[in-house]
Automatic annotation (TrEMBL):
Protein origin, superkingdom: Eukaryota
Domain Neurotransmitter-gated ion-channel ligand-binding: 46-253
Position of the signal peptide: 1-21
PANTHER family: NEUROTRANSMITTER GATED ION CHANNEL
Family: Belongs to the ligand-gated ion channel (TC 1.A.9) family.
Localization of this protein: Membrane
Keywords recorded for this protein, A-Z: Ion channel, Ion transport, Membrane, Receptor, Signal, Transmembrane, Transmembrane helix, Transport
Topology term for the membrane: Multi-pass membrane protein
Source organism per UniProt: Octopus sinensis
Transmembrane segments: 256-278
Record-given protein name: Neuronal acetylcholine receptor subunit alpha-6 isoform X5
SUPFAM superfamilies, alphabetized: Neurotransmitter-gated ion-channel transmembrane pore, Nicotinic receptor ligand binding domain-like
Amino acid sequence: MAIYLTACVTYILLLLEVIHGDSEIERSNNSADFHGVHAAKLEDTQRLHRDLFHRYNTMVRPIQDQDKPVTINMDLYLMSITSLDEKEQTMRIMGYLHLDWTDHQLKWAPDRYGGLKHLVLPTDKVWTPQLLLGNSASNFKDLTKEKLQLKVYWNGEVEWSPGGQMTVSCRLNITSFPFDRQTCSIVFGSWTEDANAIVFKPRSEKIEFDHYVENNEWEIESTMTGNLKVNHQSRESEKTYSNAVFSIKLKRRRTFHIVSTYIPFVLLALLNLAAHVVPVMSGEKLMLATTTLLAYAVLLNDINRKIPGNSATTSVLDWSFWTSQDLDNGNLKIFKPSEMFIL
């Protein structure tokens, strides 16, 4: 019995020793990983700043061969479509861009600076491209002048994400309202640096929707991106400018308009046709025609609030409504004064 108890105690002690040893090894590994990631000290960061920026010039394009353009890769992250104004011919969106390029003046060896692999810097500290919203419907401003910070990596890669509310011009056609589809584009480019200096290139073939909030009026059918080159004649010569284009194809959500506009319109049109077959002397034709006309007046007031005001294009619904109303007016014109007195 004593031998059995001694063996059990020995086994338990050995088991505890193994568990304790594994815990020490795990803590040691975690500590090593922690110090490996955060090995850089304050002195390393300060020394890196001094070495990088003591001769850095924000006015010089960051490329070794100055005869070649700097390629700016772009992604557009759409967060919401705030409004699509058919009268003003504008689209207002919320979103941000993800830009990245290589700055050959901002490269370093991480092992010389305590393993430091990236820096977070203000935009006025490094070179940034001029970036304008080319088809802006409000004020033109350089998006790269926003006071946002950017991230620089040890291999010279620079990442930056400016954004906010953007209003662009968009030609809208409401002929098929409310079954219409619209296509709007968002154009980014530079007005001072031509394609020999800067090339804007969409990284993806579509717009990103990681943080998108659905719009109640419009549904996004598809998106596409592309690079647009625009020629401009200057005093010296003709220059070509690079632009990045992000296009959105939208489809109007039509359920509300069908229920509140088209169904009442069709019912009134049927009543209008029924008024033609009612005998004049029956005493009901005038009442039906007058009631239908009053209903048209109420519906017209409602439609005027829903149909977008646009003189460039007119909705088919407008023409259909007035044609049907003219037929209803014709029902009233067929009465003679004597017949109306008899009724």
